[in-house]
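Notes from the 1:1 (GR / supervisor)

We went over the backlog. Supervisor wanted to see one worked example end to end before approving the batch request, so GR pasted a single chain during the call. The sequence is below; no edits were made to it. Supervisor asked that the structure be written out right there so they could see what the output format looks like.
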Amino acid sequence: MRPAVPRSERAEPSVAPLAGSCLGYLAEHPEELLAFMQYAGLDPDALRNSVGSPALQHGLIDYFASNEPILLAFCANAGLSPEQFMRVWHRLNPAG
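Structure output shown during the call:
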């Protein structure tokens, strides 16, 4: 039996909690929230109606993954490494 190798990072987050944290980050940064809504083509009602949906969750993770400054700021605030975040993104987008 091989000895367990300690991991230096926490377990990878799952999609729903990570997306929820992304949305929370945007809620605290109105200018970023507006930029996301414009990127996603959402108005306030559409955003409210899509909260919790897989489409919004994937869209949030895609948005953060494609925007390095916001990704780095989010990860620093969340205590998450960018590598952990991007592993979740890669699980959602296996073809890259």
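Supervisor's comment: The chain has six helices and no strands.
Batch request approved.
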